[in-house]
Amino acid sequence: MRPVDRRTFLEAAALTAAAAFAPRPAAAAGSPKKAVLISMLPKELSYEERFKLAREAGFAGIEMKTVADKKEAEQIRDASVKTGLRIHSVMNADHWTYPLSSDDPAVVDKSVAGMQTSLENAKLWGADAVLLVPAVVNAQTSYKDAWTRSQQVIRERIVHLAQELKIVVAVEEVWNKFLLSPLEFARYVDEFASPWIKAYFDVGNVVFYGYPQDWIRVLGPRIAKVHLKDFQLDRPNGRFYWKNLGEGDIDWVEVRKAFSDVGYDGWMTTEIEGGDAAYLKDVGGRFDRFLAGQKPQATPAA
Fold it and tell me: Phi first, then psi: what are they for 171, rounded to 5°?
């Protein structure tokens, strides 16, 4: 062995120290939790069977939709307890048919009642958030009116329910012609100045307007929950397609880095086409590769 001079020793020591303190890859920065949307599971099965299937596919949680029937809601709670599949969020049901931004008080009343049911579902099931589409811009409702009306209703009629039940209201941008940039989305949430109003970020929904990794970095700590789905644009023909994870235009490696940069460590829910046990296991494998900082390609055949 050659003798090591002082200069070589110091250079080697410096490189070792630099390696020790170098930024870790995205996969090591935070461990978001894996969940599946209830609509992805076979409807012909009981809730307990569906939840068991999700667990076997590698998912730790599920997002439910609003259930008005109390007996059914109790069955869902029991299925969650028996299988150990955590219900982490509830997708509100009435915000499209009865938008909070409507100028009709009767419509708004129905929307608020729907949110109350969703919040009560969340409390019963042990979830900590309810997804809300806060407003819909259309020929009858201007962008400005959608903003002011929805904020007023949320402040006056929903925040106190959320606070009382300790459930976050997570507002989502979902092709409702509203909150069309990350800066607007952040401002909309910030103007409530409430810990009970946050953002539900859907990676696929924003591809029409920009890059999801940009939205993630702007929204940062405002993000309470995340939806995962891929999206493919066929610009020459003016068409688009929802795709499985890793099969569309989204740069998943950059998206994972963005979530790492903002320190997101919460639940992520796949919101794509459903299928059988083999399909769900493949989705779970894609999810794992995404979390590891890789492109979420299909699971290799055995």
Answer: -85, 145
Residue at 9 is within a domain: no
The label of the residue with tokens 């020793």 reads: 9
pTM for this one?
0.88
Residue 262 lies inside a defined structural domain of this protein: yes
Cα(156)–Cα(145) distance, rounded to whole angstroms?
16
C-alpha to C-alpha distances, 268 to 11, 92, 112, nearest whole angstrom: 43, 17, 26
Q: What pairing do the DSSP bridges indicate for beta strands 129-132 and 86-91? A: parallel
Do 201 and 225 touch, CB atoms closer than 8 A?
yes
- How many separate domains does the chain show? 1
Span 203-251, pLDDT tens digits: 999 998 899 999 999 999 999 999 999 988 876 776 788 899 999 999 9
At residue 297, the pLDDT reads 84
Are the beta carbons of 129 and 89 closer than 8 angstroms?
A: yes
The rounded distance, in Å, linking the Cα atoms of 152 and 147 is 9
Answer whether 154's CB lies under 8 Å from 116's CB: no
| Helix (H) or strand (E) segment spanning residue 141 | none
Let me know if residue 286 belongs to a domain.
yes
In which domain, by residue range, is 182 found? 31-291
Residue 167 lies in a domain: yes
Q: Shortest CA distance to 195 belongs to which of 233, 169, 227? A: 169
Three-state DSSP class for residue 270 = strand
Q: Quick count: other Cβ atoms within 10 Å of Cβ 224?
A: 25
CATH number for the domain that contains residue 43: 3.20.20.150
**Are the beta carbons of 69 and 75 closer than 8 angstroms?**
no
| CA angle in degrees (0–180, nearest 5) for 116-75-129 | 35
Between β-strands 33-37 and 129-132, what pairing exists: parallel, antiparallel or unpaired? unpaired
- Could you read off the pLDDT of 267-284 as tens digits, one per residue? 999 999 999 999 999 999
Other CB atoms within 10 A of residue 149 CB: 20
